[in-house]
Amino acid sequence: MYKRLSIVMFPFLVLALIGASVWGYLEHQEKNTILIKAENQYQRAFHDLSFHMDKLHTELGNTLAVNATSEPSYRKGLVNVWRLTSQAQSDITQLPLMLLPFNKTEDFLANMAKFSYRMSVRDMTKQPLTEEEMKTLNTLYNHSTEITNEIRGVQNKVIANNLRWMDVESALASENEVHDNAIIDGFTIVDKKVGGYDELNWGTGSLSVFSKHDVKMLSGDEMTADQIKKKAVEFLGIPDSNGIKVVENGGSAPEFQSFSVVVPSQDSSKNETQLDFTKKGGHLVYFMKTRDVPSAKFNLRQARDIANEFLDAHEYKDLSAISYDQYQNVATITFAKKEKDVTIYPVQVTVKVALDTLEVTGLQATDYIYSQKKREIGTPKMTVQDARKQLNPKLKVTGESLAIIKNDLDEEVLCHEFIGTMNNNIYRIYINADIGMEEKIETIRQDQAEAAKEAKT
């Protein structure tokens, strides 16, 4: 019986074995195809990075070689530096370096891109490059020489030894200590050298993600953790400080020193409230209470009024609603400082209001806290009628006012602000009130425009 059964089952077992083998082979082939494709993408991005860094070094040298009075040549060179730096940044993001400390090099390239862009867009006939900026350009050229040589050395090792980027990805993902990987070692050396460079003068303004808050703008004395805990209790109006956790941030760097506060829910829910305070002065810069908002029982105008009362009850004064958005039954209203009928956009506060109970559930006030300074709001040299002449004749203007904004050079400028429609789109356009130059154009969604109009009424 067993013999007969084995004779019957044998062909099926053979077929199953053949099927499993074919399936395993196809899976192996598919996996290899994916790995080869990923390796090719990594290799392309790496060699592109080496090429762009080499071109960047050459372009910096060419820019320094032109005559100091040749404004078009300088502008062209700086535009090319900005373009190549941006391409190098893009190449880096395509490499498996997320687990490798390479942030100093990325920061350096980001600041170089911002520096070259700011220099290229300004009017050099009125603002030629200063001695300090020329010194920065020379320093960037010297640094780029070193970075290019290091990356080129890694490239030579990759080509000579047929090194694979997939091995780098596996090594970085492994919890074991990495040994003898030429690519990882090369990029680590580059980042250490960049980290050892002296601080450069990047000029006024920098990328917002790298900018340091000016603590001189803050009023008040330095706070302790216990004082911050008391401030959190007073702000939330809770009976005691039981369960409140306070963590100090920033280490020895004054511009990053702050306190983070976590407050457990006062009811049976697991929702926590988070707050951030500055160490100097104990100013609240962030507040978020997470909870579900199942329905919207109140409208925008009611939410705006509640947000206004909330801001007036605390340290955020003289603000006017400028924009509105709604998501999952929560209203997000942005306020900007208003002074002499001029909207000061750099001084902003964002408030979140739950539309089921009109409870304020969030606040973001970093721009407001760190932008407090005395501003001289002068009289526009250009009338609103002359400013309107700079607009497209087909733009139907629906609103106009004065505003202070930050331009591409990170400078605060007084502008005539126009809101208008064209080609079924709504635009907000800022015309420099002194020289008549178009500073910025923003596209506004239809629902945002209607909401902002309602919020201001």
Automatic annotation (TrEMBL):
TM region positions: 7-26
Name of protein: Germination protein YpeB
Keyword DNA-binding: no
NCBIfam families: spore_YpeB
GO biological process: spore germination
UniProt entry tagged with the keyword Membrane: yes
UniProt domain Sporulation protein YpeB N-terminal: residue ranges: 30-167
Gene: ypeB
Domain Sporulation protein YpeB PepSY1 and PepSY2: 186-377
Keywords per UniProt: Membrane, Transmembrane, Transmembrane helix
